[in-house]
Each structure stands twice: as C-alpha cells, then as structure tokens.
C-alpha cells in the first residue's frame, strides 16, 4: 500500500460502481494495492497512526461477524425485534411490521440485502429475498435470489451495529463527528439503553476541521496525507494540533504552518516555564493545558530520539514510535530533564536557512544568530537543524516566499550605477535599525524615488543581489526575516 488517495482520477472507479451494495471488504481495491477497498482505507489509518506514534489495534467488523463475535448481539436484537422496531421508529420513518434488523449478504450476488422473510433465532438463520435497495438517490438492483443466511453471513443495520459494537468491544468512550451527534448518537444511545439494556459509552462530539479553509474532500483531491505533513512539520506539532479544543471548528492550514509551529513552540516553552507568564487567567489556563497536554504530545518523539538509557539517538530512522505503558513515566522524566535542553529554530528562520543547501553554512548562520548555543551538545544541534529540511519542504510545496535559492555563499555579479549604489547604501542604513517588514518595503520605494531610480529596476537589482534572479518574494518582508548581518553585507555589496 502506498497510501495514495489523492489521485482518485487514476483509479478504477468503474469497478467501484459495479460493486455498489457489497460490503467494502468484498470490493476490490480500486488502487490495486490491497485485498479490498475496505482494507485499503484501514491500512491508511493504521499507517498514519503509526507515523504519529499512536498505538492502535485495528478491529475488522467483517471478521467480527465471520468469526461469530457478533452472533450473540445479533441473536439478541432479533429476539427483541419488536422492541427494536419501536425504538428505531422514533428516528426513522420506514420502520414497519416487516422490518427486520438484520441485513444478510446475498449468497448469489454478494450484495447486502434488506428483505428478510423469516427469522429463526434457535438455528441462528434468516430467510431472505434479494430485492432492490434504495441507497441515497440510487437504486441498487437485487438479483431476486431466495436463500438462507446465518448470523455470520450478514450485518446489523448501522443504527444497531454501533450499539452492538459498544457491547461486544466494551466501548467506554466514543468520540464522533458532529453529523453523528444529530443522527446516530441519539438513536444509538436509545437502542443501547432500551434494546440492549446497556449504558452507552461516554460521548464526545467533535467539530469538523477544514484544510486551508475548505472542507476536506477525497473526491476532489482536497486532502493531505499524514506522511506528507510529517515532511513539513514534526510529529509532535501535528499531535499538538489535535490537542486543540475539538468542540470548536479548526482549520488545518498548510499555508500557515508557520503559525501552527509558532503556537506549538510557545506551548512547549509554557510547559518548561520559559515564557514570560504572569498570573492572568489566560496564562494560568495555558500553563494548565500545557502541563496536561505536553507530555503525551512529546512522548512518541522522545521514544524515537532517546534509547532506553536516556541516551540521544542521532538521526533516528523512525521520527515517532508508539509508547509502551512502562516507558511512559520514564519519558516524562526525560522531557523534564534531558529534553528541556532542546533548541527549536523559529520555523520561518528554519525556512530561511532552507534557502541555502550547504549544511555547514546553515549551522554557522544558526550559531551566529544566537539560535544554537556554542556549548550545545551534538544532539541539540542536530535536533535544531532537523527543522530546516521540513521548513524547506513546506516552502517547496506551498511555493511561498522561501521557495527560492538564496545565493549566500557568493555574491552574484551585479552591475550597478553610482545612483543605485548610493540608494543601496542608504537602504542598508535604514535596515540596520528597522525590522518592521512594511517599513522596509516602504523604504525600498522611498529610496528609489529619492534617487530617481525606476522602481522595477531597483527591485530587479535586489533580486539579482540575493537570488541572482529577475524575481523573488516581496522584498521588504523577506529582508525583515533574513539575518540582519547578511542583509547589510549584501546590500553594501561587501560579499
Ligand atoms: Zn490499497
Ligand atoms: Zn442477490
């Protein structure tokens, strides 16, 4: 499985249509890599969780039915189908005397069927006829076959299956999207209490989150894969995103990953008490959240970066590994102790370093700018600089202002006349004691005007000096983000 769901246009969608009405685990994988359509997506979830260092145990509904784990719950619902109809009738219109809460799989065509003509709970079988079925605005044609199915050869309708899962799997906490909050949850908890006679799990309804301001959509390719995200931000930053209040809508903005990473860095500093906290309510709340949420957020990263003796592992292959119960306390102690010495380069500064290929140059700039202390242990330096490749990948994928190659090592050849030389020197003097992006941008215009230089030409000289190119990012804000000394040296054409 390559985990690619983005290029839906390439897949065999026709095969999907022909298989409408069959269980997902019986539909061939349209991507051609797994045993079934269902398995493709459960593999994807499992793999993403593993990348995030979240231990998951996958349970297959299909296997639960086939192995008989659902058999008792199915028999129970069918024995109490009178009550089941009554309860479901409060939520759905089409529940009549004929309604049977079990959908056998047709022995002939493999589709899920609705028309059960007889129930034999002692034998554990139903009789059925494979009839047409309405699914949304589509009609799935039945083949007309009449047959017998055991309780292992079919499934409970969703409204009963969900509560049955709670019972069979012993679910005590159930998070669900807000769509279920209005639909399946009220009926599910009612079915649990009044049909199964169990207490439903503790619910948590969560809001949707959007991707760069729009709803996620796999059919239009508006999705992002965990593996791709982790090429741009650290796993702990992605985990941090999920610690934000799930009852509020959140936007997962790839374009603004710099904001998310800055937020995470602040959250981390709050945990270590490195922020300028006062005793305002907001700061106290932030400290409370950080002390609860930071340890689980960072643990899988620590597990990947420190061995069992607490010694740092340089350049670990796994960026994030699941945490076993007995290592939890040990890793929390590590976080408070060893890891508190970590260094995080500000994300946009890392993006600036990413505009330079030379790793030694990256390191020396980071040191010169005071981000990496001289006495930093090797793992701290390596850890700090590991953000550079991620920020660079972010620049590449979003094509933002850092997606240019900065000519640091050598000054490009630029011919400038005396007026332009004077203007560049003046601009350098201005930048020497201003760091506001808009002020620098404004001053570029003013300087050009004072020296009667065409503004387009002046910007071209700027891009030539920094990128040896005709164009580049918006210059003022960009120069504000670069390390000052380099900007001054370059504007003064000293190297
Ligand atoms: Zn697959
Ligand atoms: Zn059939």
TrEMBL record:
<protein>
    <recommendedName>
        <fullName>Lysine--tRNA ligase</fullName>
        <ecNumber>6.1.1.6</ecNumber>
    </recommendedName>
</protein>
<dbReference type="GO" id="GO:0005524">
    <property type="term" value="F:ATP binding"/>
</dbReference>
<keyword id="KW-0963">Cytoplasm</keyword>
<dbReference type="InterPro" id="IPR020751">
    <property type="entry name" value="aa-tRNA-synth_I_codon-bd_sub2"/>
</dbReference>
<keyword id="KW-0436">Ligase</keyword>
<dbReference type="GO" id="GO:0004824">
    <property type="term" value="F:lysine-tRNA ligase activity"/>
</dbReference>
<dbReference type="InterPro" id="IPR042078">
    <property type="entry name" value="Lys-tRNA-ligase_SC_fold"/>
</dbReference>
<dbReference type="Pfam" id="PF01921">
    <property type="entry name" value="tRNA-synt_1f"/>
</dbReference>
<keyword id="KW-0547">Nucleotide-binding</keyword>
<dbReference type="GO" id="GO:0005737">
    <property type="term" value="C:cytoplasm"/>
</dbReference>
<dbReference type="InterPro" id="IPR008925">
    <property type="entry name" value="aa_tRNA-synth_I_cd-bd_sf"/>
</dbReference>
<dbReference type="GO" id="GO:0006412">
    <property type="term" value="P:translation"/>
</dbReference>
<keyword id="KW-0648">Protein biosynthesis</keyword>
<comment type="similarity">
    <text>Belongs to the class-I aminoacyl-tRNA synthetase family.</text>
</comment>
<dbReference type="InterPro" id="IPR002904">
    <property type="entry name" value="Lys-tRNA-ligase"/>
</dbReference>
<keyword id="KW-0030">Aminoacyl-tRNA synthetase</keyword>
<dbReference type="InterPro" id="IPR014729">
    <property type="entry name" value="Rossmann-like_a/b/a_fold"/>
</dbReference>
<keyword id="KW-0067">ATP-binding</keyword>
């Amino acid at each position: 499985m390559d985990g690619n769901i983005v290029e839906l246009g390439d897949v065999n969608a026709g095969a999907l249509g022909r298989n409408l009405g069959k269980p997902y685990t019986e539909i061939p994988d349209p991507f051609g890599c797994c045993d079934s359509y269902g398995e493709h997506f459960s593999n994807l979830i499992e793999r993403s969780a593993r990348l995030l260092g979240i231990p998951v145990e996958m349970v297959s509904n299909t296997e639960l039915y086939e192995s008989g784990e659902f058999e008792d719950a199915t028999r129970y619902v069918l024995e109490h189908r009178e009550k089941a109809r009554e309860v479901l009738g409060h939520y759905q219109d089409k529940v009549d005397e004929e309604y049977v809460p079990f959908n056998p799989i047709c022995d002939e065509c493999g589709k899920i069927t609705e028309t059960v003509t007889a129930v034999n709970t002692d034998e554990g079988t139903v009789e059925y006829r494979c009839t047409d079925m309405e699914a949304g605005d589509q009609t799935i044609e039945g083949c007309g076959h009449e047959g017998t199915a055991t309780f292992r050869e079919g499934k409970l309708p969703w409204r009963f299956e969900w509560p049955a899962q709670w019972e069979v799997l012993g679910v005590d906490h159930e998070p669900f999207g807000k769509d279920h909050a209005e639909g399946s949850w009220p009926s599910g908890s009612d079915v649990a209490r009044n049909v199964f006679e169990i207490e439903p799990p503790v619910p948590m309804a969560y809001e949707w989150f959007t991707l760069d301001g729009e709803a996620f959509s796999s059919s239009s390719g508006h999705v992002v894969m965990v593996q791709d995200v982790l090429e741009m931000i650290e796993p702990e930053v992605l985990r941090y995103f999920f610690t934000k209040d799930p009852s509020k809508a959140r936007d997962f903005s790839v374009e603004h990953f710099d904001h998310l990473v800055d937020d995470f860095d602040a959250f981390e500093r709050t945990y270590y008490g490195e922020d300028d906290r006062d005793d305002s309510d907001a700061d106290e709340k932030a400290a409370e959240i950080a002390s609860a949420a930071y340890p689980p957020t960072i643990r899988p990263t620590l597990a990947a970066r420190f061995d069992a003796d607490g010694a740092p592992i340089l350049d670990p292959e796994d960026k994030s590994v699941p945490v076993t119960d007995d290592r939890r306390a040990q890793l929390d102690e590590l976080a408070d102790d060893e890891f508190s010495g970590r260094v995080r380069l500000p994300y946009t500064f890392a993006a600036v370093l990413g505009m330079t290929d030379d790793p030694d140059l990256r390191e020396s700039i980071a040191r010169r700018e005071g981000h990496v202390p001289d006495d930093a242990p090797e793992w701290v330096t390596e850890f700090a600089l590991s953000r550079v490749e991620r920020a660079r990948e972010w620049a590449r994928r979003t094509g933002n202002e850092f997606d240019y190659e900065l000519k640091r090592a050598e000054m490009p050849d630029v011919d400038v006349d005396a007026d332009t030389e004077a203007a560049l020197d003046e601009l350098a003097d201005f930048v020497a004691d201003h760091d506001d992006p808009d002020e620098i941008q404004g001053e570029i215009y003013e300087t050009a005007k004072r020296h009667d230089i065409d503004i387009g030409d002046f910007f071209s000289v700027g891009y030539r000096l920094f990128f040896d190119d005709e164009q580049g990012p918006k210059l003022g804000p960009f120069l504000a983000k670069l390390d000052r000394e380099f900007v001054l040296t370059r504007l003064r054409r000293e190297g």
